[in-house]
Amino acid sequence: MGAINKKSLFVLIVRLVLAGVFVMAALPKIEDPLSFTNSVTAFQVIDLDLSAWVALFLPWLELVLGLGILIPGIRRSSAALIGLLLFSFIALHASAWLRGLDISCGCFGYETGEPGTNYSWLIARNVVLLWFIFLVLRQDMRNNPAAPSA
Questions:
Q1: Rounded CA gap, 52 and 57, in Å?
Q2: pTM to 2 decimals?
Q3: What is the pLDDT of residues 96-131, one digit of tens each?
Q4: Taking the domains of the chain in order of start, what are their residue ranges?
Q5: What radius of gyration, in Å, describes the C-alpha atoms of the chain?
Q6: What is the DSSP string of the chain?
Q7: pLDDT of 15-67, one tens digit each?
Q8: Is there a contact between 65 and 81 (Cβ–Cβ < 8 Å)?
Q9: Which of 15, 22, 102, 130 has the fewest C-beta atoms under 10 angstroms from its C-beta?
Q10: Cα 126 to chain center, whole Å?
Q11: Exposure class string for 111-150: b at 16+ Cβ within 10 A, else e
């Protein structure tokens, strides 16, 4: 019984970390959508008009999903959508890295820092967060196998 409690506590901490990461990532982008639009555009995957829409929509989605992973009724759906976002972020970072782009990812707002984007760090961070999502989903499905996802 002690191992189950420790595992549940660990997954609770993981959910809190995921919620914190996504809420903290969303807030600066909500506050300054123009700077985030520049970050989205810098990936050179979509045009400026669509980048502006993504920059307006994505932070609110991150905020809702970050909070949603803490709410039992929508935890599974929120976790699955966060997993899709993380997979997309990994693909975008890998694409930018392979194309030799040196850009701010905009992950936590507009980041002006040292030159040279550390794509290996960004990808590794997102892989760890994706593993956290797997843990949350696995525990939720074990504890509530018949529960609807939303």
A1: 9
A2: 0.86
A3: 999 999 888 778 766 555 556 889 999 999 999 999
A4: 7-142
A5: 16
A6: -HHHHHHHHHHHHHHHHHHHHHHHHHHHHHH-HHHHHHHHHHT-SS-HHHHHHHHHHHHHHHHHHHHHTTSTTTHHHHHHHHHHHHHHHHHHHHHHHHTT------BTB----SSS--HHHHHHHHHHHHHHHHHHHHHHHHH-TT----
A7: 999 999 999 999 999 999 998 999 899 999 999 899 999 999 999 999 999 99
A8: yes
A9: 102
A10: 7
A11: eeeeeebebeebbebbeebbebbebbbebbeeeeeeeeee
Query: Which residues are bridge partners to 109 per DSSP?
Result: 107
C-alpha to C-alpha distances, 103 to 1, 38, 56, 114, 117, nearest whole angstrom: 48, 10, 20, 11, 6
Give the amino acid at 24: M
